Amino acid sequence: MSFYRNAVWFVKGLQEYTKSGYEAAAKQFNTGDLDVNLSGRSFVITGANSGIGKATAHEIAKRGKAKSMSYDSESDLMWFYVVSLSVQNVHVHIVDMSSARQVWEFAESFSKSNSIHVLINNAGCMVNQKELTEEGVEKNFATNTLGTFILTTALIPALKQAQDPRVITVSSGGMLVQKMKVDDLQSEKGTFDGTMAYAQNKRQQVILTERWASQHKEIHFSSMHPGWADTPAVQLSMPDFHAKMKNKLRTESMGADTVVWLAVSAVASNQPSGLFFQDRMAVPTHLPLALTRSSPADEEKLQAILEQLAHKFKP
């Protein structure tokens, strides 16, 4: 089954996730979808110092006529930078998204003195050698899943006070090859594989998005796949893949397009909450006959485990 999933996924990727896949899909885009007035809207974007996060922040800031964005984009710690921006101002916050306590502290401090209309969970990492954080949590899971969970749940009360609130989580099409392993969320069993741990995290994100959508109907939730983009994170974490696919990879702006569309367009907010998007279209979260669906009980268990972990690290 693993060979089948990987083969079907890779063929799909060559057709859809590459630069040519984006260019084909873009022929159907309505350019007017992004002609929006962002007056009074505020955004929080994680992992915004590099790659898709930085491209997203620039596109939103440009539409809001925000002041120039200036910060160190050379750091290889993609998950450290959180950008908050409104129509006229851009603020950079240094937050280690793999540190549950830091995420809690940022969310609670930020929500006390700021409004928020849109949260974009973009920060992520693919650590190929098993590594634990100072809190004893596997680094990929800590950043991609637990950090995202804490930030989102901590900001939900503030989001509910806003008009047209949205949460967008940047997942990955790699999750299509994985069925969630709810009894091994931190990849402790067997030989550690950073790529598969990452794909598991991205599956977890999609499940969480679906659950949040059903539980918090005042907020529009979505997850998305940016395609295969040429970003510093891909170069760092997947050097062989990058070397082989370099000429076929999307630009960072192409990868960010659907994130921006989900964050600002009226068309996106009219879609049902909880869906998974690729190139401005809702797409299935499972490959045909891949047997990757989890039971409702396992999905509930995922959320319960994360709630317990989050509470453990709450200051």
TrEMBL record:
It holds the Pfam family adh_short. Signal peptide: none annotated. It comes from the Eukaryota. InterPro entries: NAD(P)-bd_dom_sf (IPR036291), SDR_fam (IPR002347), SDR_member_12 (IPR052992). PANTHER family: DEHYDROGENASE/REDUCTASE SDR FAMILY MEMBER 12, DEHYDROGENASE_REDUCTASE SDR FAMILY MEMBER 12. This is Dehydrogenase/reductase (SDR family) member 12.
